[in-house]
Amino acid sequence: MTPDLKARFDSEVTNHPIVLFMKGNALFPQCGFSARALQILQQHGKVHTVDVLADPEVRQGIKEYSNWPTIPQVFIHGKFVGGSDILMELEDRGELADLVAGKTPA
Amino acid sequence: MIDPNAIRERILGTLPGSDVVVSDTTGTGDHFEARVVSPDFAGKSMVQQHQLVYAPLQDWLKSGELHALALKTYSPEQWKKLGSR
User: Fold this and answer.
1) What architecture does CATH give domain B4-81?
2) Contact across the interface for A81 and B71, Cβ inside 8 Å
3) Tens digit of pLDDT for each residue in A48-84?
4) Quick one: which H or E segment has residue B47?
5) Pick from B50, B78, B82: CB nearest A86
6) Which residues contact A6 (CB under 8 A, 6 or more apart)?
7) Contacts of B47 in chain A (CB under 8 A)
8) Which residues on chain A are in Cβ contact (under 8 Å) with B46?
9) Domain locations in chain B?
10) Are A68 and B46 inside 8 Å of each other by CB?
11) ipTM score over 0.85, yes or no
């Protein structure tokens, strides 16, 4: 990954409390997992979305950046949280709200 | 075809002392779900917990022999709190 791309990811994930790398955008999600992740996150605040379909470099790069093989990917307060399965599980366990509030290290 | 027991053995190999339950969700030997309760998970994020479970299965995941593994991971403390939900 180029230093420029890494710097771009660093700034995306630190400049917004909730960031979702997804297929499509908030108005037109292009994948069910992305749509589901967006829906869950929106209950917890404003979600900054990045459409990976708009840029192949971003689509590949984000997987290296987080060392995670699939999209969507969620970052909260600059920290990689996981994909849609983990997000749903955190929501089920009631841990997502704490994470957004900065209360837990999860 | 992967045997659920082979998955369990590998997970136990890198996370000794954990409680591991693996089931074949489709009966086709390539889609599984696993529940892992391990003391090694304490203080770790869910992503870190999942990565610890995926680590000993990398070659199967890469080759596609293991197509999907749905994970639920808990530290013993989390399991005590959430396991009976």
Assistant:
1) 2-Layer Sandwich (3.30)
2) no
3) 999 999 999 999 999 999 999 899 999 999 999 999 9
4) helix B46-54
5) B50
6) A61, A65
7) 68, 80-82, 86
8) 81-82, 86, 89-90, 106
9) 4-81
10) no
11) no
Is this structure's pTM higher than 0.80?
Answer: yes
Per-residue pLDDT of A18-34, as tens digits, reads: 999 999 999 999 999 99
Closest-CA residue to A12 (of A84, A66, A70):
A66
Q: Do B46 and A105 touch (CB under 8 A)?
A: no
Q: Is the dihedral of CA A106, B4, B8, B13 positive or negative?
A: negative
Q: E strands within chain B?
A: 19-24, 31-37, 68-74
CB-based contact, A86 to chain B, within 8 Å: yes
Dihedral (CA of A18, A21, A23, A27) sign: positive
Q: Does domain A3-100 have CATH number 3.30.1330.10?
A: no
Residue B42 near residue B5, CB atoms below 8 Å? no
